[in-house]
Amino acid sequence: MTVGRLWQLVRYIGIPVMLGLCFLCALLGVVAMALTPSGLNPAEAIVLRGYLIRNDTTLNTPKSSTAAALQPFEIESTDTATSIGIKLVTQGFIDNGTLFSRYMQYEGLDTQLREGTFYISPAMTIPQMATELTNPLPITVRIVVIEGWRMEQIAEAIDAQPLLNFTGNDFLALVQTGTPLPTDFQQRHGIPSGASLEGFLFPATYDVAVGGSAFEFRDQLLAAFDANYSTAMQRDATGQGYTTFEIVTLASIVEREAVIPAERPNIASVYLNRLNIGQLLQADPTTQYGIGNTRDGSWWPVLTLQDYQLNHPYNTYVVDGLPPGPIANAGVSSMRAVIYPAETPYFFFRAACDGSGLHQFSVTYEEHLSKGC
């Protein structure tokens, strides 16, 4: 083959092939860079990817095949993906700490770890744990505060959530009688010195951070009260000569008495009519509150004839006027019923005999007695 012929072959075949190969290499490089997780070079990514593929079954199979309760897991500021993998093995969550750390590295999650308490389970796969341990949002549990509950019942709901970082007693220590209250909230609503926050722990559904404090939960409840007890309600109550504390106290009684929501304004009118003429309130729930959970395992015990004679501040069969403070935490409907009651001539009511939850209202005591079952 002549030199000229060889040059023609190189020119027309070799050079295009070489250029094609260069283009293919460049294209593969671009693809490799695009598919390479952030922070890794293509060679590292290939090695890690191969390792994860070989261990795919272990990666995606939880250590426990049965449902397991969430458990707290602490990440400290000095922890790395490697040290966390070791701790996960030591604490029984996984069997392969290296697989965890390499998964975190490949996915770029090793830079997203942060200090805190997280809740995971051996029933989770490594990718699921990685998601939880890099979750930027606080893990929460739901607490439902029911209308008409007293503060001790809220404490029981707290204790029913073992993931929380505080107990029912921690909460009670911040809201019960004699505890220093948030000054601005106390002044805004005219809560007397030495009073508890009973009545101001607004009933609602709350998502509570498991790592939060009793202070934060208390403030959630108080913020909800402020959001629901409007400026207009406060103004209208003041215009009728009642303080917020008095409104909340009477609303708590209405809340405990009312079974059918539509009756709240009528029940409120009965108590307001009694207050206006100096008649005893004679409200069973206040007497129940004074007795508390001391007899039959209920915070709202069944009353006996002797209970009506008890000499304690919350027995409104003996003590004139309102009790010393709220007896429960009322919803906004009961507060509105007290501020905007029905205009009625009623001074008495009793439960209807049909078990419907309705009440029969009367003007006179004689009429009231005649409606007995």
Query: What is the string of SSEs from the N terminus onward?
Result: HHHEHHEHEHHHEHHHHHHEEH
| Beta-strand percentage range | 5-15%
Helical amount among residues, as a percent range?
40-55%
Q: Structural class of the secondary structure composition? A: mainly alpha
Q: Measure the end-to-end span.
A: 125 Å
- Taking pLDDT < 50 over at least 5 consecutive residues as the criterion, the unreliable ranges are 23-35
Q: What this model shows, in words?
A:
47% of the residues lie in helices and 8% in strands. The N and C termini lie far apart (125 Å). The chain has three domains: 82 residues, 2-Layer Sandwich (Dna Ligase, domain 1), CATH 3.30.1490.480; 91 residues, 2-Layer Sandwich (Dna Ligase, domain 1); 136 residues, no CATH class. By secondary structure, it is mostly helical. The radius of gyration is 34 Å and the shape is elongated. The strands form three sheets. The protein has a two-stranded antiparallel sheet with strand order 1-2. About 3% of the residues have low confidence.
